[in-house]
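#struct-help
A.M.: can someone run this one for me? Single chain, 411 residues.
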Amino acid sequence: MSEIIDNKAQRIRTLKTIIKKLHSGEPAENVRQELKELVSQTDSTEIAAMEQELMADGMPVEEVQSMCDLHSKVLRDLIVESRPMDVPPGHPVDTLRKENEALLEHVGRMLEILARIGGLKDEDSPAGLLGEFRGHFNNLMDVDKHYRRKENLLFPCLERHGVTGPSKVMWGKDDEVRELLKALGEALGESGASAGEWKLVAETVAASALDAVQEMTFKEKEILFPMALQTLTEGEWGEIWTHSPEYGWCLVEPADEYRPPKPSEPLKAAALGQEEALMFETGSLKFEQLRGLLKALPVDLTFVDDQDRVAFFSEGTKRIFSRSKTIIGRKVQHCHPPKSVHTVEKIVGDFRSGKEDVAEFWIQKEGVFIHIRYFAVRDEQGKYLGTLEVTQDLTALRKLEGEKRLPDTGH
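D.P.: on it. C-alpha cells below:
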C-alpha cells in the first residue's frame, strides 16, 4: 500500500481489513508496514468509525472489545503522540486529561512497588510495601468517577452525532477495568501473604489491572478525546461541564477558567403556562403542582418512549441511580453496559409485543436494598407507548414491623 488513500471511506475499509487480519491470527509484523502507512493518514474519528462498522457488519460488541486491546497495542507503537487540541483550563477534556495523568502517576508508583517486592526473597514479608501499594490502589479506585462521567455525559453527546462505537466498545472495556481492579482489591485483602505469593499476584492480577488502566488512558488520549473535540458543539461541552459535578472528580479538581456558552435557546420546561392545568378524569394539576408531585415521590421514575429513547426522568433530590439531562433522547440500549443490553432489549420487546406488562428485579448495593420495576405503558386501546422504570430504596421499609397509626386517630 504505497499510494496515499485520500478517500475517508476507503481508509476506514482498509483499516477494518487490516484489523480483521490481526484478529484472525496473522502476526502483527505482517501488517505492520501497511498499518503504519495508513495510520499516518488516519485520524481518531476513522479508528472509531472502523469499530462502528465492524459492529454494523454483525460482529458482536464483545468480539470488537476483544480486538480493541490487540489493535491498540499495535497502534501504540505506530501512532505519533498527538498534540493536544487547545482547550481552556477547566474544560471537560482538560479535566479528563489531568485525571488520566494523575491515574498514571499512581500506576507508575504501584509498578515500582511491585518491582521492589520482586527483589525480595520469597520467604520475606512484603507487608510494609503492600501498605504503600494499598494507598495508591485506594486512589486508583477513583477512576470510577472518571468513567461514569465519560459514559453518562460524553457518550450521549457523541451518539447525537451518530458516533455510537465508543459507548458500545469503550464502556465494555471500562467494565473490564472495574472487574480487574475489583480482583486486585480482593487480593490485597488477603493478609499474611509472603513475597513469593505476591510475586505471583504481581505477574497476574496486578499486571492485568494496571495494564488495563494504562491502555484506557491511551485510547482516551489518542482516540476518544480528539474525536470528541472534533465532533461536539460548544453547547454540548457546556452541558457536560454543567452536569459533571453530579458524578464527582477523579483525584484532581477542575480548573476554573472555562465557562460554558450561554444556551442558544432557553430550556422550555413545558408548553403549559403558569396557571394552565392538565385535566384528568380524576382531577387536574397545574404544571408546578405536577412537577412538585413528581419530585416528591419516594421513587425514581424514568420513561422510555415507543422509539426506545429516554423521554423523561423525575428530579428527586436523592436519586438512587444518577441521571443527567444529556440522556434525554438517548437510545435506552446505549444507557446500559454491553453485557446487559440483551436483557433490556428482551424486556422492551416483550412489552411492545404485549407478551408481558411488568418486569422486576432487586439488588443489594452497599447495604441498600434496591427494587427495580419496569411497566409497559399503553393507551386505552392497548397501544404500546413506552416503558416506565420505577426504582425504590426498600431498605427501611423491609424492616417495618407491627403498626404505626396516624396520631390521635384510630386509623
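A.M.: thanks! The longest strand covers residues 368-378.
D.P.: also worth noting: Residues 1-5, 265-271 have pLDDT under 50 and may be disordered.
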